[in-house]
């Protein structure tokens, strides 16, 4: 399979689920490459970064996302064919992560599926994320049960990658993940994601709550905006549990502070587990977040708070 742009590469990888991929290094420097990383991780695709020359700056030097990646190899277009064949051979022969996990778990009973929430409390979960957020959302939402509280998410990403993100997360989440749209009912087991749309996401001012999509200029530099979502939920703040995950800038911090003042329970991802400690740092330093939580503990924190 050959692809001359990142969107084509993503679609082909999702459909074909290759064992390995050669990726031109220029693609790795695009913000949207985060989506490719998440897809490669979900499908256990091995990949090699191919630079123009030995003097090229590798993607790791400009993208914090690649600093946390594993198994990234680099070649240049001037390298001899035998080097490409060597990496090809390494990737084909390497045991697949999924196969290793299955063999390791074979002697034991399969882990039980996540338990459904014990009765819906009426609370909703709000999440905002940016750089590094795709992988963070995979971790958080993967820990939600099939009947999780209604969840609304704003993730900063390119306009063409929104549908791919929804598809990717729906693939690995027990709950149903759908793209943001107007007038969707907020019900247990439904996760609504606004990513790449040209409208802000909010909720209706009265119960039963439904999504409301609104035209308008960028807020806090983004469309859709985390601040817009959080601010729209102020009328029901006492029934809100909200979190800001990894990301650059400060989108969401102001809205999170307003939510906390209005009675919501608020969290921010901690520095150690954040790919970029920007948005969560501002949320913590301004007092918007009541508690900092590591990524691996965020699912539990959100679910427990939604049941209180």
Automatic annotation (TrEMBL):
One BP annotation, GO: chemotaxis
InterPro entries attached to this UniProt entry: CheB_C, Sig_transdc_resp-reg_Me-estase
Residue positions of the active site: 130, 156, 251
One GO location term (cellular component): cytoplasm
Pfam families xref list: CheB_methylest
Occurrences of domain CheB-type methylesterase (ranges): 119-308
Catalytically driven reaction(s): [protein]-L-glutamate 5-O-methyl ester + H2O = L-glutamyl-[protein] + methanol + H(+)
EC number: 3.1.1.61
Gene3D superfamilies for the chain: Methylesterase CheB, C-terminal domain (3.40.50.180)
UniProt GO MF annotations: phosphorelay response regulator activity; protein-glutamate methylesterase activity
Keywords: Chemotaxis, Hydrolase
Name used for this protein in its record: protein-glutamate methylesterase
Organism of this sequence: Epibacterium ulvae
């Amino acid at each position: 399979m050959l692809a001359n742009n990142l969107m084509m590469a993503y679609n082909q990888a999702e459909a074909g689920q290759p064992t390995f991929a050669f990726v031109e290094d220029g693609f790795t420097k695009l913000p949207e490459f985060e989506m490719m990383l998440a897809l490669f991780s979900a499908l256990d695709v091995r990949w090699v970064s191919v630079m123009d020359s030995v003097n090229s700056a590798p993607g790791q030097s400009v993208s914090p996302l690649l600093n946390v990646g594993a198994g990234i190899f680099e070649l240049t277009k001037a390298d001899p064919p035998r080097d490409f064949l060597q990496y090809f051979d390494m990737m084909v022969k390497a045991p697949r992560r999924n196969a290793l996990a299955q063999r390791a778990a074979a002697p034991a009973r399969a882990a039980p599926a996540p338990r459904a929430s014990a009765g819906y409390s009426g609370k909703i979960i709000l999440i905002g994320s940016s750089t590094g957020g795709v992988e963070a959302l995979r971790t958080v939402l993967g820990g939600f049960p099939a009947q999780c509280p209604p969840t609304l998410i704003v993730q900063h990403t390119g306009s063409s990658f929104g549908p791919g993100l929804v598809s990717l997360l729906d693939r690995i989440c027990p709950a149903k993940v759908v793209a943001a749209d107007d007038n969707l009912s907020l019900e247990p087991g439904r996760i609504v994601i606004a990513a790449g749309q040209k409208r802000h996401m909010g909720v209706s001012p009265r119960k039963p709550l439904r999504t409301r999509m609104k035209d308008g200029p960028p807020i806090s530099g983004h469309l859709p905006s985390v601040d817009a979502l959080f601010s729209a939920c102020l009328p029901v703040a006492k029934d809100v549990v909200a979190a800001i995950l990894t990301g650059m800038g400060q989108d969401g911090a102001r809205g999170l502070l307003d939510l906390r003042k209005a009675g919501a329970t608020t969290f921010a991802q901690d520095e150690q587990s954040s790919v970029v400690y920007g948005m969560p740092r501002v949320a913590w330093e301004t007092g918007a977040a009541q508690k900092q939580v590591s990524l691996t503990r965020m699912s539990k924190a959100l679910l427990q708070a939604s049941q209180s």
